[in-house]
């Protein structure tokens, strides 16, 4: 990667697919079994909190049985050794990047293994279920915890930090995302405007492939180590 100093990497569900975590939009994926409006919006949570808790409790349990794959490991190696600025922005709410060793990481759509108290607004590590309306570990209020996940219509986390990194990047790499959801799907255009080279690594061309200088198709566990190493 000659001439590259500052790297921003965007990851999506495709980077965790080979770890056995369902993606959202591939055949049989998570959204195939549910309408997004029924499980991933604040309105859904008000309308049918038990359905939303069942959906997220099942995913929180499933994640804990999965392991990082070669793509997570390669990104963690790059993070550990890259002398310039590097930021992994993940849309994923699993903890596989961390478990592979990644440090310079932002979860823009939240984290499954946290619970968010709608009374005291604090996040607490959480590996159990929420459908049984447990007490908030921070304030003790019972029945007010929700998944710490950014739903549609909600503001993603740390957007200022993300845009600051993108505007300093000279390489932007998108891995395992369909380019279906904003603002993440627009990052490649921000990166181009900042003068960065852009690379997409994905099983198939994404909805935003047109915007990338280069797009390679294949499984992340092959493409990412090839690119990193
Ligand atoms: C926002 C919840 C304002 C967590 C998710 C009307 C009202 C309000 C907002 C909107 C609106 N209309 C449009 C919007 C914006 C909206 C949006 O984009 N809607 C879409 C549907 C059009 N966005 C929002 O609401 C966002 N908030 O806009 O706030 C704002 C704007 C700007 C700046 C600040 C604030 C909030 C979006 C977050 C929604 N939450 N999830 C959860 O349940 O997990 S989104 C959900 O989809 C995931 O979290 C994920 O992040 C996202 C994208 O999915 P992908 O990760 O790409 O997964 P997908 O299955 O789609 O694709 C997988 C890809 O991997 C495929 O391409 C496949 O080929 C590839 N693949 C598969 N296997 C492999 C592989 N690649 C490599 N190797 C493999 N083995």
Radius of gyration: 18 Å
Net shape: globular
Q: In percent, how much strand structure appears in the residues?
A: 15-25%
Number of helices: 9
Let me know the average pLDDT: 95
Order of helices and strands: EHHHHHEHEEEEHEHEEH
Report the span from N to C terminus. Answer: 10 Å
Structurally, the number of domains stands at: 2
CATH superfamily of the largest domain: TPP-binding domain
Uncertain runs = none
Task: Describe the protein in words.
The chain has helices at residues 30-33, 36-39, 42-47, 49-63, 70-81, 96-100, 159-168, 187-193, 220-228; strands at residues 7-11, 86-90, 105-107, 110-117, 123-125, 145-149, 171-175, 197-202, 214-217. By secondary structure, the protein is of the alpha/beta class. It has 2 domains: 1-20 and 68-109 and 156-229, TPP-binding domain (Rossmann fold); 22-65 and 116-149, 2-Layer Sandwich (SIR2/SIRT2 'Small Domain'), CATH 3.30.1600. The strands form 2 sheets. It has a 6-stranded parallel beta sheet with strand order 3-2-1-7-8-9, sandwiched between helices. The protein has a 3-stranded antiparallel beta sheet with strand order 5-4-6, with helices on one face. The longest helix is centred in the first third of the chain and has 15 residues, at 49-63. It is globular, with a radius of gyration of 18 Å. The termini are close together. It binds ligand BV8. Residues 12-14, 17-18, 23-26, 29, 40, 91, 93, 109, 149-156, 159, 176-178, 180-183, 202-204, 206, 219-220 line the site of ligand BV8. Ligand BV8 binds at residues 12-14, 17-18, 23-26, 29, 40, 91, 93, 109, 149-156, 159, 176-178, 180-183, 202-204, 206, 219-220.
């Amino acid at each position: 990667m000659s001439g590259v100093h500052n790297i921003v990497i965007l990851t999506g569900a495709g980077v965790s697919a080979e770890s056995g975590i369902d993606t959202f939009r591939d055949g049989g994926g998570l959204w195939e079994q549910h309408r997004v409006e029924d499980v991933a919006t604040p309105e859904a949570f008000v309308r049918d909190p038990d359905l939303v808790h069942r959906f997220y409790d099942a995913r929180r349990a499933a994640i804990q049985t999965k392991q990082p794959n070669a793509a997570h490991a390669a990104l963690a190696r790059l993070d550990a050794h890259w002398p310039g600025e590097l930021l992994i922005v993940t849309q994923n709410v699993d903890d596989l990047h961390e478990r592979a060793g990644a440090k310079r990481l932002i979860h823009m759509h939240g984290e499954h293994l946290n619970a968010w108290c709608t009374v005291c607004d604090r996040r607490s590590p959480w590996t159990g279920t929420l459908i049984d309306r447990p007490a908030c570990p921070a304030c003790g209020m019972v029945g007010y915890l929700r998944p710490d996940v950014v739903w549609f219509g909600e503001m993603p986390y740390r957007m200022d930090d993300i845009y600051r990194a993108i505007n300093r990047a000279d390489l932007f790499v998108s891995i395992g995302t369909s380019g279906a959801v904003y603002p993440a799907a627009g990052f490649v255009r921000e990166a181009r405007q900042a003068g960065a080279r852009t690379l997409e690594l994905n099983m198939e061309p994404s909805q935003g492939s047109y915007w990338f200088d280069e797009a390679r198709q294949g499984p992340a566990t092959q493409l990412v180590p090839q690119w990193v190493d």
